[in-house]
Design goal:
Elements (H helix, E strand, L loop, with lengths): L4 E4 L3 H5 L12 H6 L13 H14 L3 H14 L1 H10 L1 H8 L3 H7 L1 H4 L6 E4 L6 H8 L6 E5 L16 H14 L6 E7 L5 H5 L13 H18 L4 E4 L7 H8 L5 E3 H20 L9 E4 L3 H16 L4 H6 L1 E5 L2 E2 L18 H6 L10 H8 L3 E4 L9 H8 L6 E4 L11 H7 L5 E4 L6 E3 L2 E3 L2 E2 L6 H11 L7 H11 L19 H18 L12 H7 L8 E4 L4
Parallel strand pairs: 1-16, 2-4, 3-4, 3-5, 5-6, 7-8, 7-10, 10-11, 11-12, 12-15
Antiparallel strand pairs: 8-9, 13-14
Length: 563
Amino acid sequence: MPPEIVKTALTGKQLLADPYLNKGSAFPEDEREAFGLRGLVPVHASTMEQQLKRTYENFRSKTSPIEKYIFLASLQDRNEILFYQLVQEHITEMVPIIYTPTVGEACQRYSHLFRRARGLYVSYPEAGPISKILEDSAPDDVAVIVATDGERILGLGDLGVGGMGIPVGKLSLYTLCAGIDPRHTLPVLLDVGTNNQELLNDPLYLGWRHPRLELEEYDRFIDLFVEAVHKRWPRAIFQWEDFSKNNAWRLLKRHQNHLASFNDDIQGTAAVTVAGLLRAVKLKREALKNQRIVIAGAGSAATGIGALIIQALREEGIGEPTAREAIWLVDTKGLVHEGRIDLSEEKTPFAQKIGHVHAAGLDATHPIQLDAVVKAVKPTVLIGTSGQPNMFDEALVRAMAAGVDRPIIFPLSNPTSKSEAKPAELFKWTDGKAIVATGSPFEPVEWKGVKTPIGQCNNAFIFPGVGLGLAASGARLVPEEIFLAAAKTLAAFDERLPGFEASLFPNLEHVRQVSYNIAVAIGLEIVRRGLASPKITEHDIPERVKGAMWEPVYPKLKRLMTR
């Protein structure tokens, strides 16, 4: 494919300051002459291969993950195409740097590491009218938006304006994993204050120094923002990211019927987890309908996983009441059951019937903690979304393993420091029988001379393909059913690198093919449901998806003359 031709009136230092048009040392002779670059760059015109070698040497010279993060962020800010080429070439090594787990530390230290603004900051005290901010500060052709209010960043809590690292990182993955053109993406930080006193006391904190907005005032601000977004970019795909458990489900339901939006923490996490679960039960030569599932943590991720499992079970012919009985949620106050009067709206559908609780030998008159649930239920599947490190301790895991031949254990909390268990421990406590996937990357585990790769239950295998499929089909809304389609598509992808055949998930080297497959499946589902742009047919979807996948190649620059 020939390089894109871009016409621009920028010259000299202004051209070098544009991260998409800047080629650094790689401007060819004709462009140096046409754009007044002689003397502004070294005389030797580097090839892309030379630039990649140079930047990778610099990357490797950094001694800590956060230094590597800063290096890559700076590269992205000055030469976007070189950034994506570099990360694409070293994807397994660099994704944990540009996203989880390293992005967590970057968000915590955001106001101290700040170098250059990226994205859009919609701050409450300067937000009116929001429509003017969107008009003045963002391009016309935005296709994908990722927005956060910074209240629940990974498992790290309220990081205020520091949460901007998450939308920036997620959209980098949209481009890297699914080829969404970075010029058509928009990261947004909705600055509604922070309840993190450490940040409020920090003289370098860059956000609004005010307690978080709450209740009607918060909702009114979000409503105004959503209305302005929908008016400005009626066909953009909107992703809610890292909102608190009190707001995540509520905001999704409040706006999903008039905005093409989804919440990756809820629906993306659910899809990638169900994909891993489908692979795991297939490995055991069993059916999903025969599993007993305990989920530790009952926030938005857990309830999203539970909802998608129920959808998958119903597709296997299981009635909804029976499907719900198979899922046991445990929160900080114990088992979620109908005898509790403190359940939030999103937990209520997963409340076990009292009769079922008693039939399992559990006493519902007192809080029922995780260890008691595991001993009574004898789960075949244990999923962690609690954010509590080491929650899956030796006693708990051995109790689970005593009741099942090959326990499926997914400690999913991010970053690594929040993981419910380490894979090596799970292998030790189950005599190597556990089938494990994790939320953060872990090295392969060696047990009795055999190395087993640990698949990462990484949302990067889901949301980029989902967003690509929605954008390529011109989706008006985002129905729940597409996430089961995404999960099944990921579960069906069999290609692995040598030595990783036993992993429940593909290697990141395969992620663009995975994203393409998912995008096609999503696009077809959108067309079948009558939610696509007019005149787009099922026949059109594969080519539309392929045509929407941008590659990081330097464009050919043409001088646009102005008067």
